[in-house]
Amino acid sequence: MDDVFVHAHGICESRQVGSGTRIWAFAHVLPGAKIGKNCNICDNVFIENDVVIGDDVTIKCGVQIWDGLRIGDKVFIGPNATFTNDIFPRSKEYPEAFAQTRIGDGASIGANATILPGLQIGAKAMIGAGAVVTKNVPPNAIVTGNPATISGYVNISREKVRSFTAGAPDLQSVTEPVSLHVGGAMLYPLPRFSDMRGELSPIDFGKDLPFKPTRHFLVFNVPGGKVRGEHAHKVCAQFLMVIRGKVSIVLDDGNDTCEVSLDSPSAGVYLPPSVWGIQYKFTHDAILSVYASHPYDPEDYIRSYEEYLSYIPNKCMQG
């Protein structure tokens, strides 16, 4: 504790505080709390007993960290963010155990955000100011609003968002597969014929797609704000196209990320194995058509982003 700074008007009863941590005025840390190295606990912060806080965490003024909170490394918690740990709170009535809420490494919680009990906030997720979070938040997701919904993903800059709109020049100019610079993912143009009777977009499995499909399924009637995908495959490749409405597709290979917005069956996205895929921003009428290179196999899925990040270097060594 010699390397821990506690302001003259702060109280730190815990002996489990890492070196370099600073605890400022009118903050109060109870005896059971565990706090890592190089943290910054600002004025008027209260930290209860059953709390674990990682290294390099910043907690701004006016925040209460209640029993059950598990906070990873390099997390930022903005001023007056509110955490809860009891689903049905009553005065003088206590649950057998408080719900655990986990904040992943590198996540940021905006000012005045409210986090309901027992949720998982994924690594590097960004919770917008004033958001009311009622569901688990995936890694890298940006959530805003009340109730909070996913509005984007971090590490996707404006130039990495490509929108291909029916009839627009950007789609009409695509005549050959275009690299999306994420793990071998490609945008494939598809034939399209139009006359006074309507439009036709045929697919020749042996010519127009990057593989011969063994399975096909549709995703539709997705409620607003809901997210599909959030997994990678070890072996199976997929080809995704929108036959109605509009859908955004996020591709992530652990290093690079991009987002493609489609609203036409004139082009589709080739999603290779070992690339993390997410589909979101479904319009109410959207129908997403997916062709798969292999039959369904639950063992082929990687559903945890943390597991995926561990899998990629092992895959490279095997390859």
Strand ordering within the main sheet: 1-3-6-9-12-15-18-20-21
The CATH class of the largest domain, by name, is Mainly Beta
Percent of residues in beta strands: 35-45%
Please indicate the count of domains: 2
The number of helical runs is: 2
What is the percent of helical residues? under 10%
What characteristic shape results from the CA principal axes?
elongated
Task: Record the SSE blueprint.
Blueprint: E1 5-6, E2 11-12, E3 22-23, E4 28-29, E5 34-35, E6 40-41, E7 46-47, E8 52-53, E9 58-59, E10 64-65, E11 69-71, E12 76-77, E13 82-83, E14 101-103, E15 108-109, E16 114-115, E17 120-121, E18 126-127, E19 132-133, E20 141-144, E21 149-153, E22 161-164, H1 169-172, E23 178-179, E24 186-189, E25 193-195, E26 198-200, E27 215-220, E28 228-233, E29 238-244, E30 247-252, E31 257-262, E32 267-271, E33 276-280, E34 287-292, E35 301-302, H2 305-318
Parallel strand pairs: 1-3, 2-4, 3-6, 4-7, 5-8, 6-9, 7-10, 8-11, 9-12, 11-14, 12-15, 13-16, 14-17, 15-18, 16-19, 18-20, 22-31
Antiparallel strand pairs: 20-21, 23-24, 24-32, 25-26, 27-34, 28-33, 28-35, 29-32, 29-34, 30-31, 30-33
